[in-house]
Amino acid sequence: MPKPVPLPKPKPPFMQTLAKYHIWLGWLVGVPIAGWIATGLFMTLKPLPEVRGEHLRIEPEVAQALMLEGSSIADAPIADMGAQLKEMRVTMQEGRAVAILTTLDGVKTRINFATEEQIPALDAAAATALVSERIVGGDAITSVDFFTADEVPFDFRRALPVWRVALEDGTYVYVGRDTGEIEAVRTRWWRWFDLAWGLHIMDLSEREDNSHPTLIAFATLSLIGALIGCVLMFRRRKARVSATAVEGTAR
Fold first, then answer.
1. Are 90 and 134 in a shared domain?
2. Among 1, 73, 103, 117, which is least packed, fewest CB within 10 Å?
3. Is residue 248 part of a domain?
4. Distance (Å, rounded) from C-alpha 209 to C-alpha 13?
């Protein structure tokens, strides 16, 4: 007696195949999606100006307008720098006009705009005095530390020699040694916000790269999973309609 030839298994319906892929994608991208939602929600809890500590800054009184025309400052320090000068910015500090000069290699120098004399770099006492004057609660200082341009703390992330003035509430105020200005305010909330941002873009090392293969791959898979889920909604609707029709026929 001839052996029966087994019939080929019928292919599963298209929607059933999509449902299987949807489940596997859910297992793969479920954690990143939950992380994106959680970190995104966390970063919306406070407005950005408050995260950056701008509400702690005390703006100095507006001084008289700077009279730049006719100044001979270019005859002295700028001329000495020659082609090495990259930028000159004029601002008011302690009621006087100050020119902040930046060379091509990033070195900054302060020049008194009126006398054309170089202003010395800030020491610890001057940095703490500036924080006490320009930051809300800046007189509650717990420590003052200096960092060179090549070893600044991770939460500053700028190649600039700075004084870090730590306050009792956990806020760090970074004062430029050569600029005489408050370069950054890092509250405790900012540091948690920075961690959430690093998790959100999947870059905990630098927290700057928001376009890398890992992030793009998981975002693409998440989008595919979401689109499959949208298609499967029609399958569920069709199933409910069929069940209702069968129930009506039975009655």
1. no
2. 1
3. no
4. 42
